[in-house]
């Protein structure tokens, strides 16, 4: 009984941590530009695929991982420079279609270059399962569960203790006011895309030894990251992390206790239910419309 | 304004009437039929997105309900196709109305999330209930017949969808110029201002959402009978996106833009088939380029350029 529950909890928290990283990516870009980046899932996929590719081409693991984070970050910056900056202030639908176009380009190129097969990455520190109260935990899960909190703490430090971080926060509160006090809001936008692509890629790399990856793995990952971000209240960093973990745990519990066929539907049922009663997610700020 | 709007309608009817004479073979006939079907769906969706300013990323889900109603009810329960189509539309309308009230308290990206979620749940249900729907492989759909006359050839279907399209264009033009249409445009402009002048904002949003969902469901049924086969892909997220893209590329809040968008995006995959393997890349790039350089869509941009306007 307990063993089974723990088992579902472990897998839920592990995949939830990836959703949390994706949701943080959504949050960063949303705060800097009000854009929902539907290409976020592709960064997750790209991280995993590139890590596989670099490891296979003989690079040592650490170098392969760093490259697999840097390349998606460059892709993110390219998207921002070429497709988002030129249309600043466009309607939500227009921006959604642009980011979906970007996601199609990334997904299509990946399929052309790496093929449509499924790839796996060797676990970073072996495949010897750890027994905890009858449940098994893969060492790779510890990597996911260890790295995610570090990232969260680093982000917290960045936003609260550094000038660039504070500039990003200021931009998210009020863009015009931020420009007036001399903050380079275009630079903020640039940074937010680089950071959120890197976060997504990191999540993708960490989780690939557990879940495998393929050119189309980013779609569901991205959409669930979006669910997590909305669940926590769009724009709220802490909310994104809590949302990600919640989505991961409930999905895993639902798949285990209710129906594994409907596993992918669980996050979406959850978000509809939450939005019906809390239109701004769990921790979303109350806003009053200004006329 | 009124006159000029109808002038466009006459041109549409003329093109639809003459098209079969110039189409060289059944391949183009099939393409024309699918363009017309999409055009009707996009007209409905544009009323919601373009005129009322509310996004839906789950419309393919409604299309799926219609399509599967036409497949499942006649096959498993022996219903008459017309009855099945009606039941599908009624079920869609009911579901849309039920979820619309809570959904339309939401705005912008939250609304996008909710409609996206709804579409994905519907799609997953279609994939999983294999006993009824055939699962991911889909299922065949019986032929559509009425009064002993069976719609079988492309020609028959062409005239059916051509008439449906003409009626939809006419209805959309009228709707936009009615008090209902003006209320929709008002709430797009400023929700608060329209509330102040007495527009029941939520009621109008719900009404237009239900209407466009029913449009999609009916055309889903038509698609099912025309193709003779349904798969869950009809109701997936990507198809929802395709429909929204048709609205935006053609031109939001433009009736004729909807037609242009539907025609172009239905033809595009055919044209891209020559790119072997690169279709997705090229399709994505075209979406981005269109939106970067023509953020208002083709028809409104061109109309503004030539100083006419619709």
Describe this structure in words.
The complex is a heterodimer of chains A (291) and B (310). Chain A has 291 residues and is mainly alpha-helical. Chain A has eleven helices and two strands, in the order H-H-H-H-E-E-H-H-H-H-H-H-H. Chain A has a two-stranded antiparallel sheet. In chain A, strand 1 and strand 2 form a beta hairpin. Chain A is globular, with a radius of gyration of 19 Å. Chain B has one domain (2-16, 29-305). Chain B has 14 helices and four strands. In chain B, a hairpin with a 2-residue loop joins strand 2 (144-146) and strand 3.
N to C succession of SSEs of chain A: HHHHEEHHHHHHH
Low-confidence spans of chain A: none
Main-sheet strand order of chain A equals 1-2
Global structural class of chain B:
mainly alpha
The biggest sheet of chain B amounts to: 2 strands, antiparallel
- Per DSSP, what share of the residues of chain B sits in E-state strands of 2 or more residues? under 5%
Number of domains of chain B: 1
- Helical proportion of chain A, percent range: over 70%
> How many domains make up the coordinates of chain A?
1
Look at the helices and sheets of chain A and give the structural class: mainly alpha
- Compute the gyration radius of chain B: what is it? 19 Å
The two chains with the largest interface, and their residue counts, are: A-B, 46 and 48 residues
Q: Outline of chain A, from the CA principal axes? A: globular
Query: Under the CATH scheme, which class of chain A?
Result: Mainly Alpha
